[in-house]
Write a structure and sequence with these properties.
Largest sheet: none
Number of domains: 1
Number of strands: 0
Strand content: under 5%
Helix content: over 70%
Structural class: mainly alpha
Number of helices: 5
Shape: globular
């Protein structure tokens, strides 16, 4: 198995962070609503390639966070890195679906 318990927990934590930033605290009326406005402005200017990984898309943000978090916290292994990113994106999709069923 390529992902051990600590990496699975780190992946889950990263997915939760991405969902909270993208869907909870950056929406209208919350503390980072100005950040969401900025990301939408970037998207309107045709810069979605930068706006999505910065938080406009929860999965894109999770992918970016997991890419850099793994590099900062682990002894490098290419396969483990790929699995870590994929697992984080999968968990983000699951959390986004759950959040959507509950709050949207």
């Amino acid at each position: 198995m390529y992902l051990t318990g600590p990496y699975i927990m780190l992946s889950l934590s990263t997915a939760i962070l991405a969902v909270v930033i993208s869907l909870v605290i950056s929406t209208k009326g919350n503390i980072l609503s100005f950040y969401q406005d900025f990301l939408c402005w970037l998207d309107d200017k045709g810069l979605e390639w930068i706006a999505k990984p910065m938080g406009l898309c929860p999965k894109c943000l999770a992918g970016q966070l997991s890419l850099w978090i793994y590099l900062l916290t682990a002894d490098y292994n290419v396969l483990q890195h790929i699995f870590f990113i994929a697992w984080t994106i999968l968990l983000t999709e699951i959390l986004t679906a759950i959040y959507g069923k509950i709050y949207m």
